[in-house]
Amino acid sequence: MNLDLTFSVPFTHRLRFTRDAFGSRNDVLAGILRNGGTRPARAAFFVDDGVLKSFPELPHRIERYARANRERMTLAAPVTTVPGGEACKNDPEFLNPILQTIHSAKLCRQSYVVAIGGGAVLDIVGFAAAIAHRSVRLVRFPTTTLSQCDSGVGVKNGVNAFGKKNYIGSFTVPWAVINDARFLTSLSDRDWLCGFSEALKVALVKDRAFYDRMLADRTEIVRRKDRTAGRILARSAELHLRHIAEGGDPFELTTARPLDFGHWAAHKLEQMTDFRLRHGEAVAIGIAVDVCYSAAMGLLDAVAAEEIVEYLERLGLPVWDDAMHDTATLLEGLEEFREHLGGELTVTLLEAIGRGVDVHEIDTTVMADAIRSLAGRQAAAATG
């Protein structure tokens, strides 16, 4: 007997925007926790050590919040610190203590793992939650502009292995994502700007009006105007989530990944610089590379390409790194990207601002020229 059955599983992705989530009158977190019974929901909190340096009172505030909402939630373990930054994803030894805490706290599949931190911490804690009991409910608190507008909103998590980014991981829809603007106040200017490369990315492939707004708001972004930045980050998060929920391929089972525009080069550059480049900085460079290539191939108007690259520069994001002199190694990122996708190579380019197009072949000679054009630009800027 041959039997082929198709079935689907409904998911709800809850995205919330707030400020000071652990304030005494804030109901956002307590309001989304459920355990399917009459007892309070059990939760274990994992916090990025970099976040704790900026907010040392956070564990106390979490404990106080849980006591104030004891009818709806209870702490299953003391607040646990997780080393932040990409390094925590490079060593498998960082994963085991998280799993041990989940095990010791006796969390079940109707309990909650709450991850508070930047993208790397959300990735490793999210992966641990996904593989414990084949998935404990995950609540994410992204604490950087990049994670609030992109990675923290997604359905992916993982760790690095074999010199490749996110080689081990899973697709798991979080129970909820809570973007708390209070956490952004502690970011350095460098980390503040990183998220806006991802916002620009989604604007370029999805929404011309959003791109125009980002162009008009450049000065206020750089000056860290909360209201303006908040609108941009929220729109970016919405576009990312809508693509996941409404794009028809939330777990990337096919080859098209428009939200990875600029990322084939970005991921390789992170490896080549031993993660000296922040992810958002590498994405900015990757966008510049693919924009220049799109123009060189006649897909994108040259004036538009120049405007995009110039915008990245004026925003304070890099469009070049000296590691790119090793063009041959950088181009290896194309094959690694294909392998990560599976099947044939699919790279999203631009045919107009706000409209991406998928291609399945890259002319590496033209791509190398596009990369070199950015080197010349960097040299001209240095001498100018």
How would you describe the overall organization of this protein?
By secondary structure, this protein is α/β, with parallel strands linked by helices. 48% of the residues lie in helices and 16% in strands. The chain contains 16 helices and eleven strands. It has helices at residues 28-32, 49-54, 58-68, 87-90, 95-104, 119-131, 145-149, 189-206, 208-216, 218-222, 226-246, 263-272, 279-296, 302-315, 327-341, 364-383, and strands at residues 14-18, 41-48, 73-75, 80-82, 112-117, 137-142, 156-161, 164-171, 176-180, 347-352, 355-359. The strands form three sheets. Strands 1, 2, 3, 4, 5, 6 and 9 form a seven-stranded parallel sheet that branches. It has a two-stranded antiparallel ribbon with strand order 7-8. A two-stranded antiparallel ribbon has the order 10-11. The longest helix is centred in the middle third of the chain and has 21 residues, at 226-246. The mean pLDDT is 93.
